[in-house]
């Protein structure tokens, strides 16, 4: 079949990437969708089960840092569009292993840009998915796309550096790049190191939600469907060489998030799973917890030591994107309800990430 367009998505088996791939495969049957992903720990082939046998979907297992592989993909396919999402994103891990973040987030982006620029058929769009964290902390101000970049942890520093690389290809070659910076994206299939699925995992194990520090941290949460709609709108209407914020109006204090999740899930049945070394999922037990009254919500919260550098909030303005017609459509209540429901219906989607004996050590720090 001759496809009208070929789209390459890096990191397409990850949380946001898999939602983007599924949307593209289903909505654009006349487009060929190629997913390049190395299936790191936070990715699951199950995220793409619904499209894996579709004619217009191709999966390539590989690393964006593999220059030979990436060059071969561009030389053997007429790539029209690149969505570059492949990245390491866990802030805690970036302090422990900054070199791996540099390799994937910076060098991987360099490899992708170089191969795309020199491809026999140069892409029409190269959309680089970045983060609001490049702005640094905003206490009494909202950041727009012209605000200075002031990253404050190894993860956001590598994303900012990659942005400069992307921008340099526009400045020097007029290579058609677009950069996006979004708030905290959440929804079904997100790996358990992020704050919402982490709290849900702890509650599923009848454990407390662990919160870093006692400072009043909050985050703006954006449902994954709204993020995907923004990417597709920018593909259609975004101006090359530009940066676009993808922001949410839903700023939620992390303590409030934990309390809301306690109230939402403690009236339901839980299934606790243990991932054995032999690779089998074994049912430990089923139990039910009655509704927790408001007076007892704090009993389900535990404050743990903060990480080395913590930003209290990341407020961003999205007027530039809104002028193209984008608005977030999924409310916080709807999005959180859908997310909780998915995790309750899919308790074995992710292998249990911990040993029971060391659960507090490994689950103590939720990335927000």
Outline the structure in words.
- The protein is of the alpha/beta class and 368 residues long.
- The chain has eleven helices and 14 strands.
- The chain has helices at 15-27, 67-76, 91-96, 98-117, 154-173, 195-204, 224-237, 254-265, 319-322, 332-345, 359-363; strands at 5-10, 31-37, 57-61, 81-84, 125-131, 177-182, 184-186, 209-212, 218-223, 242-246, 251-253, 269-275, 281-288, 301-304.
- Strands 3-2-1-4-5-6-10 form a seven-stranded parallel beta sheet, sandwiched between helices.
- Helix 1 links the parallel strand 1 (5-10) and strand 2 (31-37).
- Helix 1 crosses helix 7 (224-237), helix 2 runs parallel beside helix 4 (98-117) and helix 6 (195-204) packs across helix 8.
- The longest helix is centred in the first third of the chain and has 20 residues, at 98-117.
- It is globular and about 65 Å long.
- The N and C termini lie far apart (43 Å).
From the spread of the alpha carbons, the general shape counts as globular
The oligomerization state is: single chain
Distance between the termini: 43 Å
Percent of residues in beta strands: 15-25%
Number of helices: 11
Q: Summarize the helix and strand pattern as letters.
A: EHEEHEHHEHEEHEEHEEHEEEHHH
Number of DSSP strand runs: 14
| Cα-based radius of gyration, to the nearest Å | 20 Å
User: If you average the pLDDT, what whole number results?
Assistant: 88
């Amino acid at each position: 079949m001759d496809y009208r367009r070929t789209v390459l998505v890096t990191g397409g088996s990850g949380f946001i990437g898999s939602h983007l791939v599924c949307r593209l495969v289903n909505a654009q049957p006349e487009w060929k969708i190629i997913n390049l992903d190395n299936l790191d720990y936070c990715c699951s082939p199950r995220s793409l089960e619904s499209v894996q046998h579709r004619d217009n979907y191709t999966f390539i297992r590989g690393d964006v840092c593999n220059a030979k592989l990436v060059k071969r993909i561009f030389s053997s396919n007429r790539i029209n569009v690149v969505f570059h999402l492949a990245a390491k994103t866990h802030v805690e891990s970036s302090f422990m292993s900054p070199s791996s973040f540099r390799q994937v987030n910076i060098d991987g982006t360099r490899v992708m840009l170089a191969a795309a620029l020199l491809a026999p058929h140069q892409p029409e769009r190269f959309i680089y998915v970045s983060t609001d964290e490049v702005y640094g902390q905003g206490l009494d101000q909202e950041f727009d796309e012209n605000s200075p970049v002031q990253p404050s942890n190894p993860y956001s520093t590598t994303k900012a550096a990659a942005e400069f690389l992307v921008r340099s290809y526009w400045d020097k070659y007029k290579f058609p790049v677009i950069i996006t910076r979004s708030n905290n994206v959440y929804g079904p299939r997100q790996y358990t190191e992020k704050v919402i699925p982490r709290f849900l995992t702890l509650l599923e194990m009848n454990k407390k939600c662990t919160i870093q520090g006692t400072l009043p941290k909050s985050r703006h949460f954006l449902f994954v469907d709204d993020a995907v709609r923004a990417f597709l709108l920018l593909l259609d209407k975004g101006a090359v060489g530009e940066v676009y914020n993808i922001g949410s109006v839903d700023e939620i204090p992390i303590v409030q998030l934990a309390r809301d999740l306690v109230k939402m899930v403690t009236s339901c049945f839980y299934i606790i799973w243990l991932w054995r070394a032999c690779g089998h999922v074994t049912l430990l037990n089923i139990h039910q917890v009655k509704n927790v009254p408001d007076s007892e919500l704090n009993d389900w919260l535990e404050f743990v030591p903060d990480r080395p550098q913590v930003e209290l909030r990341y407020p961003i303005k999205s007027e530039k994107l809104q002028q193209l017609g984008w608005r977030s459509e999924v409310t916080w209540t709807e999005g959180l309800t859908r997310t909780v429901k998915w995790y309750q219906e899919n308790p074995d989607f992710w292998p249990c990430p911990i040993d029971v004996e060391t659960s507090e050590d490994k689950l103590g720090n939720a990335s927000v």
